Every structure is written in C-alpha cells, then in structure tokens.
Predict the 3D structure of the following.
Amino acid sequence: MIALLEPIFGNGKPLPAWGEEEYKLALKDIRLSGVGPQICHFLRGKGLLDETPAFFRSALKQDYQQSLVQNLYIQKMEREILAAFEAAAIPVIPLKGPRFAEGYFGHMASRPSSDIDLLVHPEDLKRAEQCVEALHFQKDKQVHNHVVLAKATGPGQDALAVELHWTLDKKNWSSLDDRRFWEEAGEIAGYRHVKELSPTHTLYFICLHGMRHRMDSMKYVMDIVQILAAAGTRIDMGRLLREAASDKTAKRVKIALSIACGLFPELPASRSLPFPLVETAWSYSAIVKKQTGVKDMEYYRYVSFFKFQIFDTLKHTIMSQKQIYEHTAKYSSFEGN
C-alpha cells in the first residue's frame, strides 16, 4: 500500500507500475486498515483514480459511498447530542468524526467514522451522560479516560457508541494538562458551548490517539500526514513540543510524527521537523502482522517497543503496566474445583 500512497503525498510521483495481482493485494491491505475512502478521495483529487484498474476503482468508490452514508448518520446523531449539550449549557469539544473529515480531509466521506467522541470537563461528566441517555443511549462501560454509551441502530447492525472523554490521555500515562485544550479551543458558528480544538491541539490529540492504538493502522499515519498538509503554518510545532515536554508526552508525540514523516520524507512538514526522526520498531509489515495475527520476532519487537519504550518517565512506564495488570485482573477469576 505504501507505494500507492507515495504519489499522493510525494512530489509528482507516478502510480506504481502494477499489474492486477498487485492491485488486488493492495486492496486487501487497504481494507485491512479501513482506509479505502481516504485513498479514493486522495487519488481522485490527484487525478489518478481513473488510472487504476476498474475493479480497484469500483471497490474504492464503494468504500467511499459507504463512508458517506455512515458519516451522514453519525453527523445527524452528533448534531442532536450537541444541541442537547448546548441547551444544557454543557461545554463540549467534538473529537474526530465528520467535522474532522471535512476540516482536514476536505469532504465528510473522505475519512470514515464509527462512533462519536466528545471531550467534556470532568465536573460535567454526569450531566453529559444524562443528556446522552435522554436520547435513548444506554451506558455500556467506563474505561481509562472515557465513558461509553451505546444505542442500537437496527437489526444486524453494530450499535452506535458515544464516548465521553474527560481527558485526552489514559490515567497515569502522563501529566497531561487538558486546560490548554479548552483555553485555545475555537468557536463553532451557531453555538455558545460547543468548541473545536485548535489545529496544533488537533495534531497533538491525533498523535496521542494513534499512539494509544500503537499506530496499528495506516489510518493513524494518514490522519497525521493530512493534518500536517491541511493545516500547514497554522500548526505551531515548537509550542506543541514544549507542551508535550511539560505534559510528559513528548516521546509519544515525537514517535508518532517520526513514523508519519519518515514514511513520506518529501512532505514540507517532514523536511522542517524540528527534531531528528526517532528510531522505532514500527514498520508497515509489523502492523500488517498484527492485523492478520502473525506473531514472529518482528511482531514481538513492535509490541515490546509500544509497551515499554514510548513513555517519558520510568514512573509512567511502570504505571502503564500496572494499569494493564489491574484491568486483566478485574476481568479474570480463578476458582478451585
């Protein structure tokens, strides 16, 4: 798949000289990472989509159309929830979702969403839950830094989840100060209490989000690359790195940026990155192995790296493992015969 992304994010590179089999393998990888809509959008924007085989082009268009339908539904539900928050005077910041797709990818369908993520103040969490429950969602669980509420969407379909975050990082993974996100959040037309993250903090959040998932899908890489490309000089990289250093998240931010910029060195943001690329155990082949269940030495190096080598301090490394232990113990039981 990487060879297909180079003409999109590179400098005028042509599409790879692939035959039908290579495109079939690429389509398999694309769907494994769920990035068909993104690639369809980017290839179309570059005028390259019609240069691909008909079956490949048709499959990407189908993914794009499915993303449009899904995101329209999510947008509708998100607007209902935001209206309820506005009426209750609950400050809220939408994270990712259709608005993120429109703002940074250029079209709602160009970056699929599967749920609704919202940031609220910790002291407003209970009222926020009640607002969402009033729209026929039911509380499902509370994990790490968010509460999950779900609503059935139809027979044979996955429930729609709303995640109410009260912070943008896992407990004990850092010393993250969320107040800056709220202080710098911008106004959204038509609302008094609904805000949006600044471009710098959007990049910060997306880096932390990708690292939370061990950058195990190309969608996380593409999110970072597209924010860098779309926001450009609106991102204050120096400030981001200073805040990350203060929050003890600098290592994760630098790793996420190194993975994305290392893959696409011709990007202007890659050439101006204000720190040397961090050496990691991430590779495209490693995440494909994770997605397909292949467990060899490359896979274990990748997992070990993201478990033990991504934290700024020894304390946060130890606490991250303590959380995993406690979470496992909570859902495990051993009974004698």
Summary: The chain is about 55% helix and 10% strand.
